[in-house]
Write a structure and sequence with these properties.
Low-confidence stretches: 1-12
Number of strands: 12
Shape: elongated
Oligomer: single chain
Radius of gyration: 19 Å
CATH architecture of the largest domain: 3-Layer(aba) Sandwich
Helix content: 25-40%
Distance between the termini: 54 Å
Strand order of the largest sheet: 2-1-3-4-5
CATH topology of the largest domain: Rossmann fold
Strand content: 15-25%
Structural class: alpha/beta
């Protein structure tokens, strides 16, 4: 038997919250979404899911089971909408009656997927939610002489192509979506890694320095600048930062 080829989602890398108590299913979903380049935070019970879904943390989409230990999925969804959170929500549930679907959508869900389901369908629905949540996304990001094609998954500086790992690509995309802004190490870790990130490590600095070396490999001017004690900013030398 030949192994199933790895599918790659050629789109923007986002941060997704998965609230699902079935360990095996959650593992499948996390692996699929991570293959697509997304950072995935997983909560296995409703109380933890409630905390993450309603806290100050920023998510681009939430995948939410209804039947959970502790708080139920509908309670989490209701709290999100009552709190003014418009984050797109995909409900996952074994409840497949018409009334269950109507209830979920009426409570503020953006989409509804019943178990069992195909992972490819889940991925397609997540892609649709992410597009909807961003109001449509640009397929090419540019700054100075730097260009990133989100469809082709390529990066170039001037006429020179730059090869980056998936994590470096995600990091560079975050910078390109926030030019001239100061990005703290914490904000970078939250958007590019998931919450299993080792906050005591220097991984962010190592990756930033690695990306910077690739950008300057042929003697080009510096674009990623260090603000000591604060973080980093993508800017040209004369640019101000926010």
């Amino acid at each position: 038997m030949h192994p199933r080829p790895r599918k790659v989602y050629n789109g923007p890398d986002m941060r997704v919250l998965l609230v699902e108590d079935e360990k095996k299913l959650a593992g499948f979903i996390r692996r699929a979404l991570k293959e697509d380049g997304h950072a995935v935070d997983h909560c296995a019970d409703g109380d933890t899911g409630f905390h993450h879904a309603t806290s100050a943390e920023s998510y681009d989409a939430v995948i939410l089971d209804l039947m959970l230990p502790g708080r139920g999925g509908l309670e989490i969804l209701h709290a999100m909408r009552e709190g003014g959170r418009s984050t797109p929500v995909l409900i996952l549930t074994a409840r497949d009656s018409l009334q269950d679907r109507i209830t979920g959508l009426d409570r503020g869900a953006d989409d509804y997927l019943t178990k069992p389901f195909a992972l490819d369908e889940l991925r397609a629905r997540v892609r649709a939610l992410l597009r909807r949540g961003k109001g449509g996304v640009a397929t090419v990001l540019k700054f100075a002489d730097l260009s990133m094609d989100l469809v082709e998954r390529t990066i170039s500086r001037g006429k020179r192509s730059i090869v980056m790992t998936p994590k470096e690509f995600s990091l560079m995309e975050y910078f390109l979506r926030n030019p001239r802004r100061v990005l703290t190490r914490t904000s970078i870790a939250e958007h590019v890694w998931d919450y299993n990130f080792d906050w005591q490590s220097n991984v962010v600095d190592v990756f930033v320095n690695g990306v910077r070396r690739k950008l300057e490999e042929k003697g080009e001017s510096r674009l990623i600048h260090t603000l000591r004690g604060v973080g980093y900013a993508l800017k040209e030398a004369a640019d101000a930062v926010n």
